[in-house]
Write a structure and sequence with these properties.
The complex is a heterodimer.
Chain A (H helix, E strand, L loop, with lengths): L2 H4 L2 E6 L5 H8 L5 E7 L3 H11 L3 E3 L2 H5 L6 E4 L6 H10 L3 E5 L6 H14 L3 E4 L6 H11 L6 E7 L11 H4 L6 H18 L3 E9 L10 E8 L4 E7 L11 E6 L3 E4 L7 E5 L2 E5 L13 H15 L7 H20 L3 E2 L3
Parallel strand pairs in A: 1-2, 1-4, 2-3, 4-5, 5-6, 7-10
Antiparallel strand pairs in A: 7-11, 8-9, 8-15, 9-10, 11-12, 12-13, 13-14
Chain B lengths: L4 E6 L6 H10 L3 E7 L6 H14 L3 E2 L2 H8 L3 E4 L6 H10 L3 E4 L7 H14 L3 E3 L3 H4 L1 H11 L6 E10 L9 H10 L6 H17 L3 E9 L4 H6 L4 E8 L4 E8 L9 E8 L3 E5 L29 H17 L7 H20 L3 E2 L2
Parallel strand pairs in B: 1-2, 1-4, 2-3, 4-5, 5-6, 7-10
Antiparallel strand pairs in B: 7-11, 8-9, 8-13, 9-10, 11-12
Classes of the chains: A alpha/beta, B alpha/beta.
Chain lengths: ~350, ~350
């Protein structure tokens, strides 16, 4: 049976808050996978999401969703702490699993998901939407094409004003200071690992608490050495003053040139290399002009891997190495020491 | 009205003495009274010193102490090997002579501490050559804004200082082999340029560094790898008041950036401040050839550069006149040297280094 004959995959989405809305927008652009059911422990959230998605089946217990024979794949958008539990249950139920980042909260959880995928024969992947953002893909191509030689230093930051308000204290009261690092750092650590084509091997992290009422530290700075020798500086930054909009910036210094995408007001960038200094102006191929949004791309490519029985674009083993780097950074925050990362 | 301060200019072998000497020569508060280069200096350095003496219409000396005895200057601009500075500053202090010293002020913490003691024991004024850290006009404005509370309580600092002048300003492979064979100490780009970031950061943070972590390597230049020195460092700092800072300092091979890539970000509780050397230039984009490697015609540089030297020298002279400390003090030199040595120790050990 060809992929076309089998398509689309029937998807159950689990966890209907926050990022699920981005995934829903993605599904609207994807032919290879369609939402057929959703689930959230809060019944109102599930039914509201179902209405937005134009589906009728909304559950409050993911086991009920997994029991359906007509669900091929789950898309796990629940809170970080239950990703592994749901992913393992889904894989054991014979469902393919696209898992929001971070796909696990510990190395043991990550290894258990990998084992469950292997035993079930189903595919699983950590959703890393940044890998499908056109600007990062353009920069990755420049790096891979050798335009700046060997990349040796990368700085990535995604600064924004605080996400959290005092009335949300109940949701964060029990969260550890490193929660933002683990939750959002999966983006920056994965982007660096992908950009450099090399895993992290040592990390040191510092943090600033930010708002006094919030247990989660709103700023974390990580200095990470990669196996290639390159060094990255990444920030998880929600400490900017009120009114500062969300943006992201990257600076890649190579042995023969520099890529600079640090103008946070546009999606353009510039590159300095042996051929000169070039402004990559808005409207160029380096702007966000791709009609496919990153979430649609990651869903589509995962679905195609399932339908064609090919390798997923981001192997879980690679995501596990990224997670090890993040967990080492969290340990560094707790101990104040630099932490080596096991291969 | 006070008479101009009588100044001697000592040493032209390396560094920015031509700039500092010229700034002294042109400053209404100073009068250059003599110029020295020692006999053991290369002929090129002695020629530069003789030319400068001639431009000032003053005598050229081979021996600094002969100049000191003959002209009795009130202040000197030193550009000597850093290891010699502590002893020279002590002797200058004993004579009551104020000192403007090229960077780094000494070879190590012990030498810098000796300078602090000599400066304070003798009541002289001392400053040192990381001029752009406090006097490049955008950075000076940023420091003024931060000290004036424009961003509220400072929380986070980020800095980039990537020199772009390429291999012309590095040591050759042959020189690297010679130094390695001779066992001569050699400093990398963090020692060379780290002060430009650290000393601006300390002004923003308003507190001493208490913890340092550093990753560094010789990424770009074969000669640096041979000599065992770094051309790029990423340094993570924490200050005694909790400010978290990270910076990259190095000399890349990227040929076509219009100027040194200097960026500072100060994130406070009430605002964010950005300094960007490239953004503050007028960039003209056009064809670029290899022959342009060191001649970046088409780029105007209105904000960074020579005026920083003049402002730095002028602050030193006014500090003498006003009987106050200059903006960059001997204690700042000690803070810089301690941070620098901690960074090198961290890079060598892979561990965080705490500063008491």
């Amino acid at each position: 049976m060809t992929a076309d004959e089998r398509a689309p995959l029937r998807v159950g989405l689990i966890g209907c808050g926050g990022i699920a809305g981005n995934h829903l927008a993605g599904y609207r652009l994807v032919e290879e996978a369609h939402l057929v059911a959703c689930c959230d422990v809060v019944a109102g959230k599930a039914s509201e999401f179902a209405a937005r998605a134009g589906i009728t089946d909304a559950y409050t217990d993911y086991e009920d969703l997994l029991a359906r024979d007509d669900v091929d794949m789950v898309d796990i958008c629940a809170i970080d702490e239950v990703h592994a539990e749901i992913a393992i249950a889904a894989l054991q139920a014979g469902k393919h699993a696209l898992i929001e980042k971070p796909f696990a909260m510990s190395v043991a959880e990550g290894e258990a998901i990998i084992a469950a995928a292997r035993e079930s024969g189903c595919k699983a992947m950590c959703a890393q939407s940044l890998r499908w953002q056109p600007k990062w893909r353009a920069i990755k191509r420049l790096v891979d094409d050798g335009r700046i030689g060997q990349p040796v230093y990368v700085r990535y930051t995604e600064p924004s004003a605080p996400f959290w308000r005092p009335e949300q204290i109940d949701a964060y009261r029990d969260r550890a200071p490193e929660w933002l690092l683990i939750h959002n750092g999966m983006h920056s650590f994965d982007l660096m690992t992908w950009m450099l084509g090399s895993p992290p091997i040592r990390v040191h992290a510092r943090s600033h608490p930010g708002q006094e009422w919030l247990p989660v530290h709103e700023y974390v700075s990580c200095v990470t050495r990669f196996a290639s020798g390159a060094v990255a500086h990444t920030e998880e930054n929600r400490i900017m003053p009120p009114g500062y909009g969300l943006g992201n910036e990257i600076l890649v210094v190579g042995t023969t040139g520099t890529i600079d995408k640090t103008d946070r007001l546009t999606s353009s960038g510039d590159i300095s290399d042996e051929n000169g200094y070039h402004l990559l102006a808005p409207g160029s191929t380096y702007t966000l002009t791709d009609p496919d949004m990153p979430f649609a791309c990651e869903i589509r490519e995962f679905a195609r891997a399932v339908l064609n029985d090919t390798a997923v674009p981001i192997p879980l083993e690679e995501s596990l190495q990224v997670l090890k780097g993040l967990l080492a950074a969290a340990e560094s925050l707790r101990t104040g020491e630099a932490v080596s990362i096991d291969a | 009205m006070r008479e101009p301060i009588r100044c001697a200019v000592i040493g032209f072998d390396y560094g920015h003495q031509s700039a500092f000497g010229t700034a002294l020569r042109d400053d209404a508060n100073a009068q250059v009274v003599g110029v020295v280069e020692t006999p053991d200096a290369p002929e090129e350095a002695r020629a530069r010193a003789r030319d400068f003496a001639e431009s000032c219409g003053v005598a050229y000396f081979d021996d600094p102490w002969a100049l000191m005895d003959a002209e009795a200057p009130e202040a000197v601009s030193l550009c000597l090997p850093p290891a010699r500075n502590p002893q020279v500053v002590a002797e200058m202090g004993a004579r009551g002579v104020h000192v403007l010293s090229e960077k780094p002020p000494a070879a190590d913490v012990a030498g810098t501490r000796a300078i602090v003691e000599a400066v304070r024991a003798n009541g002289i004024r001392f400053t040192f050559g990381f001029h752009a850290a406090r006097f490049a006009r955008p950075i000076a404005k940023a420091i003024g804004a931060v000290r004036g509370g424009r961003v509220g309580e400072v929380r986070i600092l980020n800095g980039t200082h990537l020199q772009v002048k390429g291999p012309r300003y590095t040591i050759s492979v042959e020189e690297a082999h010679r130094r390695k064979t001779a066992g001569e100490p050699s400093v990398g780009e963090l020692a060379n340029h780290g002060g430009y970031v650290f000393l601006a950061f300390s002004a923003y943070a308003g507190a001493p560094v208490r913890s340092v972590y550093c990753e560094q390597d010789a990424f770009f230049y074969e000669s640096y790898a041979i000599a065992g020195i770094e051309d790029l460092s990423v340094v993570s700092l924490e200050y005694a008041n909790g400010v978290v800072a990270t910076c990259v300092v190095g000399r890349t091979t990227t040929k076509s950036l219009p100027t040194t890539d200097v960026r500072h970000e100060v994130i406070g509780s009430g605002g964010v401040l950005h300094v960007n050397a490239i953004a503050e230039h007028i960039n003209v984009y056009g064809d670029f050839t290899d022959g342009d490697e060191f001649d970046r015609g088409g780029f105007d540089t209105p904000t960074f550069g020579p005026e920083s030297w003049r402002l730095y020298v002028d602050d030193f002279l006014r500090a003498i006149i006003d009987d106050r400390d200059p903006e960059l003090t001997a204690e700042d030199a000690l803070e810089f040297q301690r941070t620098l040595e901690a960074a090198y120790e961290s890079a060598a050990t892979g561990q965080v280094v705490e500063i008491e």
